[in-house]
Amino acid sequence: MPVRIYKPTSPGRRNSSVDLFDDITKGKPEKSLITIKKSKAGRSGGKISVRHRGGGVKRYLRLVDFKQERFDVPAKVLAIEYDPNRTARIALLQYTDNEKRYIIAPFGLQVGEEIVSSRKGAEIKIGNRLPLELIPVGTTVHNIEIQEGKGGVLVRGAGLGAQLVAIDGDYAQMKLPSKEIRKIKKECMATIGEVGAKDKRLIRWGKAGRMRYKGIRPTVRGKVMNPVDHPHGGGEGVNPIGLKYPKTKWGKHALGVKTRKPKKWSNKFILKRRK
């Protein structure tokens, strides 16, 4: 996924870059695998639950198959497509009975290749999906299940990959992109390889207008508000916040707060915390 950096011919072009989409082989999505995405503008039950959201371009949701439960049925890669709802590319598969499905496209997967999902075992190659217990230690994988049969939930973003560190008893030890080492049931499925579109993180959006396409509205700093609107507000001219620590609009700690519940049920599966 190459990225083009433009010359600063205008203030909006300065420090901005764009995706060239050279790895895309099909322009329009498969009609049977899309649905309307309803815009909620950061609201839940009519009330704002996430600030600074709204607008954005209209999108279709691609129905991505995270389970890949059609075991031992080869599928041919028909196309690599763009998905506006995720950073990764998606691959269009066609099974031997002509059924089509989308999956997350791993790095290096080419049009015309055949991949398979199997619980009994298959070749260790990019795109094949296997239980963790059948994957060699040290292999890079993505789209990992946490609960058997529920579908992949871990490591699905562009350029990400987790490493299988060891198989210990009933569990596999996985080193996640955050450097956290976690135990996962060895029967859970994972796809060989890392997610494609590695250069996605290198894109510089450059101007506010491109963020509005994504549905992100302007963010006003708390220190330029009035005291009634924000704990950082008030004062004349450019002033510090006047507090021991930054606060949210509602007076709670804004930085360095641990958001994970200290007694969360899955804590016992974490062997080493992320840094």
Automatic annotation (TrEMBL):
* Residue span, Large ribosomal subunit protein uL2 RNA-binding domain: 42-117
Q: Does the keyword rRNA-binding apply?
A: yes
> What does the entry list under GO cellular component?
large ribosomal subunit
Pfam annotation, one family: Ribosomal_L2_N
Region Disordered: start and end of each range? 222-241
Lineage, top-rank taxon, reads Bacteria
Listed InterPro entries: NA-bd_OB-fold, Rib_uL2_dom2, Ribosomal_uL2, Ribosomal_uL2_bac/org-type, Ribosomal_uL2_C, Ribosomal_uL2_dom3, Ribosomal_uL2_RNA-bd_dom, Translation_prot_SH3-like_sf
Q: Where is the Large ribosomal subunit protein uL2 C-terminal domain?
A: 124-253
The UniProt record lists the keyword NADP: no
NCBIfam families the record matches: rplB_bact (TIGR01171)
What's the stated role of this polypeptide?
A: One of the primary rRNA binding proteins. Required for association of the 30S and 50S subunits to form the 70S ribosome, for tRNA binding and peptide bond formation. It has been suggested to have peptidyltransferase activity; this is somewhat controversial. Makes several contacts with the 16S rRNA in the 70S ribosome.
Family assignment? Belongs to the universal ribosomal protein uL2 family.
Entry protein name = Large ribosomal subunit protein uL2
Q: Which organism is it from?
A: Candidatus Falkowbacteria bacterium RIFOXYA2_FULL_38_12
